[in-house]
Amino acid sequence: MRLRGWGAVIGAAALLWNGTVQGEDDPQRFSWHPSLGITALADDDPHLDQDRGAAAGLWIAPNLALGYRAEAYEIEAELGADLRRYLGEDSLSEEFARLSLSAEAGIYPGLTVRLSDAFVPRPESIAAPADETSNLKQTNQLDLEVRYWRELPEKREILLALHGMQFSGEDFNATLSTDGGGFVRQKNFDPEHLEAQLVAEFQNPVGERSAWYLRGESHYRSFNETAVTDHFDVSVMLGLRTRRFRNMEIDLAAGWGIISFASRDDVQRFVGEGTLRFHQSGGWAWIGSAANRFVADLSGNNFVETTGRMGIEKYFGDDTQLSGAVFVSRLENDAWDIDSNLFGGVELRGSHRLGRYTEISLTYRYWQNAGHYSADDFDQNRFALELVYRR
Fold first, then answer.
1. Which of 209, 210, 324, 375 gives the lowest tally of CB atoms within 10 Å of its CB?
2. Residue 210 confidence (pLDDT)
3. What does the alpha-carbon distance between residue 236 and residue 299 come to, in Å, rounded to a whole number?
4. pTM to 2 decimals?
5. Terminus-to-terminus CA distance in the chain, angstroms?
6. Cα separation of 270 and 252, whole Å?
7. What percent of the chain has a predicted confidence (pLDDT) above 70?
């Protein structure tokens, strides 16, 4: 794999640091924030396969975030690592890099350009935990986004965004869709591909704290190694955002989408999403969300995901927080001759701030994958004790 992000990020960090050492008219333009996370965890199925037993691990994540902000542009860089060790499980012990660079500039009133490069780990499977070591692959993603926002008469708004991306990553054993339906396992799959996305949104206010909006999106994805999962999709949704009701935030949208594959018939689907957040006296907050949308995994397989999540949070002053959530998702792939994949779980977390820069948290998570695609079924219980220092 080509490590496109290393040189650019390190060079940007040196440039930012040199600018500060040399002195600027306004030293507040430069920022740097070091952090260190240490996580001890116990996991009864770290391989996500129900076969190889439990393990205990220690994760160490140092990071340095750098930033420079001027009147017309800003530059940010992060230099970090994710070092993971498991007792008696050498196959799970991994080292990931987290290096990124981004630059954003305003070139015309309302028109901005953003260029970023991120050399970071990303999850291979949608149906498995996104932070589990066995589900992560080192990847590099180069993004270019051009965004235009303008306020129209009577506080109406219009947003246009064009996004292009080049993606590469380490090879892995992938499950791929086939031309005739069904799937096949391919060794040493190269996930390198190109993507392009266009988003247009018009927003119209309704009263002081509400607005309805019309959003259209189109997306194209093309892989170097295989054309079976190449696709183009379009969706249009009408939505409402409101804070009209006391202590409540609502965002609802619904519409229609169509996805066109390179080697299969087009598929039309209802698409929608919604989020409800309710703040209650005494530090309580309730959060619910649901969505039906197109999603794609690292192998390029495209799914329709129907997902729901319900959570509760309790704040004890500014230093202590307790939270809990339940979630469930259903994945459907029209190209596979099997029924849907189903997964869900429970998350419980408590955190306490020990000082100005230090926080400790304890998290329990149960995750189950139990759909008709039985090859990736598993049940997992995980406890994690995390100490974070962040300036």
1. 375
2. 94
3. 26
4. 0.86
5. 33
6. 14
7. 88
pLDDT for the residue numbered 23? 45
pLDDT at 228: 72
**What local confidence, expressed as pLDDT, does residue 148 receive?**
97
pLDDT at 63: 97
- State the Cα–Cα distance between residues 334 and 263, nearest whole angstrom: 12
Residue length, the chain? 391
Report the C-alpha gap between 14 and 77 in whole angstroms: 10
Q: How do residues 187-210 score in pLDDT, each as one tens digit?
A: 888 899 999 999 999 999 998 889
Q: What angle do CA 314, 317, 323 make, to 5 degrees?
A: 20
For 16, the enclosing helix (H) or strand (E) is helix 5-22
User: Which of 323, 322, 325, 285 is closest to 307 using CA atoms?
Assistant: 325
The DSSP call for residue 300 is: -
pLDDT in tens, 321-360: 999 999 999 988 766 656 688 999 999 999 999 999 999 9
Long-range contacts of 179-186 (CB under 8 A, 24+ apart): 179/228, 179/263, 179/264, 181/264, 181/335, 181/336, 181/337, 182/335, 182/336, 182/337, 182/338, 183/335, 183/336, 183/338
Residues of the chain with pLDDT under 50: 1-3, 5, 19-24
| Closest C-alpha to 218, from 241, 201, 240 | 201
The two tokens of residue 183 are 């799937």
Instruction: Please say whether the beta carbons of 156 and 174 come within 8 A.
Output: no
Provide the CB-side half-sphere exposure for 350 (13 A, CA). 3
- For the chain, the C-alpha Rg in angstroms (whole number) is 23
Distance CA 167, CA 221 (A): 10
Would you state the pLDDT for residue 22? Answer: 45
Long-range pairs for 50-56: beta carbons < 8 A, 24 or more residues apart? 50/377, 50/378, 50/379, 55/86, 55/87, 55/88, 55/89, 55/92, 56/86, 56/87
